Amino acid sequence: MTTSPRKRSFRCGPSYPYDSSQRTRFTDDRARILAWPSGGGLIVLDEAEAMDFEFLGLDPLDPPMKRLPDDLEEDVFCQRLLLLGAKWWNSEARFSIVLLIECGVAQDYLVDGAFIIRKQPPPTMREKHLIKVGWPSTGGVWISEFDTTWAGMDEEDNLLDWDEDLGRLRMARTMDERCNMLRDRFRGTFYPDLKTYCGYGFFNAWEEKELGEVGPLLYPDETHDVWWNAYGVLF
Fold this sequence. Notes:
The protein has 235 residues and is an alpha+beta fold. 28% of the residues lie in helices and 14% in strands. The protein has a four-stranded antiparallel beta sheet. The longest helix has 15 residues, at 220-234.
């Protein structure tokens, strides 16, 4: 088993809000799949559906709750997760911050008890773009991607026509059905070779990504240090 070169530090104080061992998180309205690249940061597929779990070789009714212990195996999983349109965040803290911005919380809100939203960099195009992906049985990949309005509108001509269509998309029972919907309802683009993709997704980021969207890619211990320092300034 390989291990991270970073040493974990422990300090007395408030409970640390992050858990870098998690694979699957369930809330009252969605499932999230997380992966932890050895190069730092956090990869998240938000609003994962049953077919996404199956694409990853996971049982959607009984998915693993913990990440793989081996870094090399976890990296392989990370690359597979990126193929579904997952986003590569600077850190778990950054993911939490942007998630609450999307939910419309107040600018003076404390994220994870430490980060004041108005003091954080605004979401980037890659962080706020909506991306949906389908892998047809005949080969290639369908990708639909749209701007969103919750962090400012940058592409007025690239917004979803009807929000309820996302609900329809979740009714797809197979990847092929999802692909057909992306093509017919979501202005999807077909790529015979994913290497030709040049949008805001992280599909081809594995070999080239060295920095996060708003700073360095942080290891879990570094995320802890940033959180602790921010907490210490406030209290």
